[in-house]
Amino acid sequence: MSQDYIPQDYIHGYDPFELRRLRDQATTLAELLHAGTRFCAEEVVLEAGCGVGAQTVALASDNPRAHFVSIDVSERSLGEAEAAVRRNGLKNVVFRRADLFDLPFAPHTFDHVFVCFVLEHLRDPLEALRRLSRVLKPGGAITVIEGDHGSTFFFPDSVLARQAIHCQVDLQAQAGGDANVGRRLYPLLKGASFSEIGVEPRQVYVDGSRPAWADGFTRKTFAAMVAGVRGRALAAEMMSAQNFDRGVADLLRTAEPDGVFAYTFFKATAKAS
Which end of the chain is more exposed for a tag (fewer CB within 10 A), N or C? Predict the structure, then answer.
């Protein structure tokens, strides 16, 4: 198995807390991230790095006449993904254990490749995109969605909250990933020889007029993600327990009716040469 793909160092962990967070994230962000992502009937789509199936369910539900092959390197994640698909009664997805850097597919197999929240965890995202381009049919398309923690801003501002976020960013970097990879999508796709590249920022903006977003994204997605690295951050002596907990509390404070929270995802599409 390639050392460029690092599921053993998945910074968020695999516990039930993280599984719940991923599902909350997918539910909250489905319309924002997947608007415009539609596949034609009978198209075969490779979902690369499906994880626990949080995005798989949305894709397969929105495109019932397309066929999905969803892969992940983690058997545990694949089991969760298969269970999620069964719970939702979806019949247009098959799962397969596979490494992005050693794909078990012939060249020109797929009409489309979909990648969401995967490149951020890879040591070599450029090479991953090159490998994925080889299994696309000539003129086939790729969709890539990634976040960028450097895009975060909030009110009330908090030095400790920013330090807690940086703990997550630094830990991911130490594991070989990049929590700010969203800003790199255009050069990465260009470097992998894709053409017709388009990158669109999709911003989450939350204030007191959007309580569902304050709960679903600010509390249950972003603050929960930062809180999830507490053990690793303390073990690495990045912050004291008191300061880290205060930082998370300050993030949660921005979800109150007088608070504001914003974060930008980047969605890219491109064509195989």
Answer: N
- Beta strand pairing status for 93-97 and 67-72? parallel
Does 2 map to a domain? no
Task: Return the closest-CA partner of residue 179 out of 188, 190, 166, 191.
Answer: 166
Q: How many domains does the chain have?
A: 1
Residue 66 has a pLDDT of 98
Distance of CA 211 to the CA centre of its chain: 23
Closest CA to 187 of 241, 142, 126: 126
| Regions of the chain where pLDDT drops below 50 | 1-11
Domain membership flag for residue 1: no
Reading the block at residue 42, the tokens are 């009978």
Give me the pLDDT at residue 2, please.
40
CATH number at residue 215: 3.40.50.150
The amino acid that residue 6 corresponds to is: I
Q: What range defines the domain where residue 169 resides?
A: 7-271
Distances (CA, A) of 162 to 47, 83, 98, 184: 33, 36, 36, 22
Record the pTM: 0.91
